[in-house]
Amino acid sequence: MNDLPVPLPRTLNVEPTVGGGFVFYEFTEAKENRSLSFEFTEDKQTNKETCGPEELGVVGHTVTPADMECTKEIDHQQTMKALAQQAGNDTCADCGAAETTWASYTLGVFICRNCSGIHQNLYEHSQVKCLEDPWEAAEVQFMEKHGNEVAKSKYAVHVPIYYYQPTHRDCQVLREEWIRAKYERKEFTKPDKLKLCINGVREGTLWKRGRDNKQFLIRKFVLSEREGTLKYFKTQEGKEPKCVIKVDSINASFQPSKIGNPNGLQITHRKDSKTRNIFLYHEDGEEIVNWFNAIRMAQFNYFKVAFPTAVDKEIVNRMTQNFLKEGYMEKTGPKQTEGFRKRWFTLDHRRLMYFKNPMDAFPKGEVFLGSTSHGYDVKKGLPEGTLGNFTWRHGITIVTPERNYLLTCETDKEQQTWVQALTEVLGKPMTPQDCAAEAHFRHRS
Ligand SMILES: [Zn+2]
């Protein structure tokens, strides 16, 4: 009784290739006079692959079933790697990172290492393996049949235009909830499966940081699509809102490190032409990400009515955006002889705001940034003979039609990234809305 198929006698020839670190194995199936070729890379994790042919003892030797298994496994790995390089599979199915070193063999997607960590918490829906792991023939076949494009047409076919699809630069909660929404809750497999509002209203509680006492307290929030407002109330039963925020004036961005909570959300809005920040979080990642997307939905619908001729892409550009850059710089006053003071700067669209502290409710000042064709400019360094006691040595001069702003950065890398971010803003042509905002700033100052 022997269940194993009797191996045919085979001859194995071994030839190391020139360069590239590959060893080339070839053997002939004696009976059928057929030849097969394999390539082995030399820097693999398992012993089978790292040992050379001499160590395997296979030179001029009959190939055993075990040797065949080994070559098959390596064959599968090579197929997986080739698949991961195909268009569509070469960027992460979940965050778009240009690195697909992992795959989910139950969903059929190629993903990055970062996203694979999130998939590992979704064991019921997704089972992942590194491309370097051993792959079974059936798994490879499944991946061949599926892949990122096929998975997209299944799991992400009805993603609403306003729904924020995170990139590899976004924070954990945004990436994790996007992955859970797609594969665990399957919110985009049918139209209208995702419910962010009921009858145009979203109501719930969020932790909000107090402006003065800096303590996070529970507040009731109500988002009304019809009114285009986000309100919050001091108490659950409260009739009079503490604040009414117009959705078209909102920018919302996740700020986990600044807020000190993985689900921390900053809402920047304008009221009576003053910019105001509020800082929120919810313990539940799904809840906070849904609030964020509900605000985007309300914004989208508001702009759709306000600008009926605008195309969807233009509208999306007006919605919430990650801040272009934030960080400390030193700044002098309008006379440019005052002492330089350390301030927290936030670049939000065309607004450069500065605060005494990163979590202040109100900025100490704001600079509107137009475009180079409208007389704005940014340069490295300070004008010659700049007075004032600045401790940081890496200067930046922002030129506006009204005045120059003199700033200094702590390191040349900071100077470099600020100049780059500001130059990018100034390089963009101004839209009619930008011109209106500029006029408003001039009128105010
Ligand atoms: Zn990814």
Written overview of the protein:
With 445 residues, this protein is an alpha+beta fold. It contains twelve helices and 20 strands. The strands form four sheets. Strands 10-9-8-7-13-12-11 form a seven-stranded antiparallel sheet, covered by helices on one side. A seven-stranded antiparallel sheet has the order 17-16-15-14-20-19-18. The chain has a three-stranded antiparallel sheet with strand order 1-2-3, with helices on one face. A hairpin with a 4-residue loop joins strand 2 and strand 3. It is globular, with a radius of gyration of 29 Å. The N terminus is likely disordered. The structure holds zinc ion. Its main location: cytoplasm. GO terms for molecular function: GTPase activator activity; phosphatidylinositol bisphosphate binding; phosphatidylinositol-3,4,5-trisphosphate binding; zinc ion binding. This is Arf-GAP with dual PH domain-containing protein 1-like.
Distance between the termini: 95 Å
Sketch the major β-sheet.
7 strands, antiparallel
* Count of strand segments: 20
Bound molecules: zinc ion
Helix content: 25-40%
Low-confidence stretches: 1-53, 55-59
Report the portion of residues in β strands. Answer: 25-35%
Total DSSP helices: 12
Which term fits the overall shape?
globular
Identify the strand order in the major beta sheet. 10-9-8-7-13-12-11
Overall pLDDT score: 86
Category by helix and strand content: alpha+beta
Assembly form of the protein: single chain
Subcellular location: Cytoplasm
Protein name: Arf-GAP with dual PH domain-containing protein 1-like
GO molecular function: GTPase activator activity; phosphatidylinositol bisphosphate binding; phosphatidylinositol-3,4,5-trisphosphate binding; zinc ion binding
Keywords: Cytoplasm, GTPase activation, Metal-binding, Repeat, Zinc, Zinc-finger
